[in-house]
Predict the structure.
Amino acid sequence: MRLTVTVLSYFKKYVQREIAQASGVSIYKPIQGWRHVRKRQWIFDENRPWTDAAKEANKPGKRLTELIEPIPKSEWKIFLGDRVQILKGIDEGKQGLVCSIITERNWCYVEGLNCVYKWVERNAHNPGMISKKEKPLLVTSEVSLLDPSDLQPTQVEWRYDEDGNRVRVSVRSGRIIPIPKKALDQTEDMVDRNDYIEQNWDTKEKELIKVTFTPVPLSFEEDIMKSMGIVETRKRIPKFYY
């Protein structure tokens, strides 16, 4: 049980350590005693915290001006691979697929839409070329999920089906909007499970799901006696504590 918890929380601790080291905050106790270090707010963008680009964007002196209240994970309704419609901006009314999500900023990126164009390596001797890059959109007000029945924007809320599964439902038509397989196959560190090649040293799935211990409401001595087939026929003498 402890090993499972440690493995599952390893990536989260790794990201926290990378953010702390990039912010100049020591994760170890200093030898000369405690020191007060003011923690700087980490600026989340399209680059993940463990990349060099994110550390470059979070150099000392840069600060996030807008206050952001992230949507709770249990209330997040838009996932990777969803088809959405843009409600604001130059591409208002167009539909596309969500290609990236930044939950810390309530952002999503729509593939090929809401882009900014920039000249690259353009000078007197080189005509250069134009680079295209998607800009983020707020999931709260700038995009909307589509109803599967008519492919029109709709409000969505979480409900439970007859089997007790938590599903997304269109408020307008009552149709269930399933979570895309692309989002289910992606791990916490942005890796697709289908792209992983199993190695010889990996623990097999049947060994992971094998139950090796079943807790029972017995004491240590009673558990040993039960496993060895020892039946206790003696009765304890009643004790009174008054």
Notes: The chain has a mean pLDDT of 84. Residues 10-22 form the longest helix (13 residues). The beta strands are 83-86, 95-102, 107-110, 115-120, 129-134, 137-138, 143-145, 156-160, 166-170, 176-177.
